Amino acid sequence: MALGLGALSLSAHAQWPNRPITIVVPAAAGGTTDIAARVLAEKMGQDLGTSIVVENKAGGGGGIGTAQVARAKPDGYNLLMGNIGPVAINFSLYKKLSYKASDLRGITNVISVPNILVVHADSPVRNVQDLVKLAHSRPLNVATSGVGQSPHMSSEMFRQKAGIDVNLVPFPGAAPAVTALLGQQVDYMIDNLPSSMPHIKGGKFRALAITSAERSAQLPDVPTMTEAGIPMQVTAWFGLLAPAGTPDAVVQQLQQSAHKAMQTPEVRAKFAALGGVPGGESPAQYDQFIAQERQRWAVIVKTAGLSLE
């Protein structure tokens, strides 16, 4: 009897996946989380022999979509393209969350990117110090792609280190925040580099500074924040997670498929063009990384005195 059950279990697992997989993006379409999910979904779907559907579930600083996956059946068919906001920052920023750290397990990091400080190309602001001077003359409006996301936290860090007062205008994702700056409804924004890159290259945005330790190979003339006189460094990251309880064998297969996709010249070229670095860590390494990031951001949030209901 035991042998029969064992054979049945192995047979059932061997059939995975036998239906479409859903990757939930806890942000609006068009942002880095969404871009990373769609690039990966196509390649992984081909590798796994099934279709992978990307579902955008924005709101709550990424918490709504993240909670949906946290509550989903742990069968490998419900995944999250998480990011630094809902997976790390939210745990110290929000007093209450509808999910716990233990509700999710990591699969692998997908892409890491710096953030970029941009103004509209028609703005009189030519550099960071110009922006700081303008902020001292009048209140500035700043677009952010969701409360608690790395652009929001970067904007808070910039405000503190530059000693300026600004009005933060949160949007449910990078795309609507970018649209607001394109329409000159706000004065500037700090965005994940991939979602602003097309507008920088297209001449619609002027890039003032980047939050990485080194300049971007894609934007060699843009100084780092530190070079521009604002000592701050932020790297945003985006990766696959699954509900806790998802079988190890399924998580391993997903990680291997994602890693294989990230090694293809096509994906590496797309990520490089966005100014991003591909991931590919093992599930254990990714879980350890996420735990470290939660601790690091808890210190930053506490120091800034930030707290949200």
From TrEMBL:
Domain of life: Bacteria
Cited InterPro entries: BUG, Bug_dom1
A Pfam family recorded for this sequence: TctC
SUPFAM superfamilies: Periplasmic binding protein-like II
Family of the protein in this entry: Belongs to the UPF0065 (bug) family.
Protein name as annotated: Tripartite tricarboxylate transporter substrate binding protein
Species in which this protein is naturally found: Acidovorax bellezanensis
Lineage: Bacteria, Pseudomonadati, Pseudomonadota, Betaproteobacteria, Burkholderiales
